[in-house]
């Protein structure tokens, strides 16, 4: 029996590729896969994986929610995030939430195996470039190299991304299981933190960001 991995990604081809990559390692095995948060929760309970490889953008929610849940309820499970999102913006965010590694989908496939072995050894995995940025910020200034979006909370970042995907306030509220009034409050906070004048500027800014990072 090898180390048990669960793959959570809403793209079947990505899951298939990861399953093949991980299964090719003699000491690794894939115990399950899931396409969204609800299915992931069920599979985690049923298979008890040691490592979860998790995409952030899922059809039924944001992967950061699952990271936080696992940190609170199953801290022994190591979460390795694999995402298309900008590492400089999201890696520190997911590490704060409880993940132990972040890999960009733009990296070579072998990077996944390297990252998995790193986190299984008890270390945190991020790219060398991000490590350098984090060290520079620690010793040279808090905001060095930071994006304005770093000012947003995890929930505000979710709302910002969904605005950029073209969802209305009511659609965002339904997706996040919150009230429309709460979403409006988050929109105002995002607008203020990013220094945007009105809702039109916010929507334009969010749409542009999603186009650049999709």
Structure description:
The longest helix has 15 residues, at 199-213. The model has no long low-confidence stretch (mean pLDDT 87). This protein is globular. The strands form two sheets. The chain has a five-stranded parallel sheet, with helices on both faces. The protein has a two-stranded antiparallel sheet with strand order 4-5. The chain is 55% helix and 14% strand. It contains ten helices and seven strands. It starts with a strand and ends with a helix. The chain is of the alpha/beta class and 214 residues long.
SSE order: EHEHEEEHEHEHHHHHH
Shape: globular
Number of helical regions: 10
Question: What characterizes the major β-sheet?
Answer: 5 strands, parallel
Rounded Rg? 18 Å
Helix content bin: 40-55%
Low-confidence stretches: none
Class of secondary structure makeup: alpha/beta
Strands side by side in the biggest sheet: 2-1-3-6-7
Number of strands: 7
- Beta percentage is 5-15%
Distance between the termini: 37 Å
Mean pLDDT: 87
